[in-house]
Amino acid sequence: MAITNEQIEQKLTEKFGETVSHFEDTFGMLCFEVQKEQNLKLLQFLHDEPELGFTFLTDLCGVNYPDDKGRELAVVYHLHNLVSNIRIRVKVFTAIDEPNIYTASKLFAAADWMERETFDFYGVHFIGHPNLKRILNVDEMDYFPLRKEYPLEDQLRIDKDDQMFGRG
Amino acid sequence: MSRPVRYNIHPIEANTADSITYVDPPKGYEGDGFFTTKLSEVVGLARKNSLWPMPYATSCCGIEFMATAASHYDLGRFGAERMSHTPRQCDLLMVMGTIAKKMGPVLRQVYLQMAEPRWVIAVGACASSGGIFDTYSVLQGIDQIIPVDVYVPGCPPRPEAILDGFMKIQDLVGQESVRRRNSEQYKALLNGYGIQ
Amino acid sequence: MTDHHIILPEGSIEKQTTTLNLGPTHPATHGVFQNIMELDGERVVSTEQTVGYIHRAFEKIAERRPLYQITPLTDRLNYCSSPINNMGWHLTCEKLLGVETPKRVDYLRIIIMELARISDHLICNSIVGVDAGAFTGFLYVMQYRELIYEIYEEVCGSRLTTNIGRIGGFERNFSNTAFTKLEKFLKEYPVALGELESLLTRNRIFMERTIGGGAISAERALNYGFTGPNLRAAGVDYDVRVHSPYSSYEDMEFDIPVGKTGDNYDRFLVRNQEMWQSMRIIKQAYEKVQSFKGADAEVYHADVPEYYLPKKEDVYTKMEALIWHFKIIMGEVDMPKGEVYKSVEGGNGELGFYLISDGGRAPFRLHFRRPCFIYYQAYPELIKGAMLSDAILTMSSLNLIAGELDA
Question: Is the pLDDT of residue C295 over 80?
Answer without folding.
Answer: yes
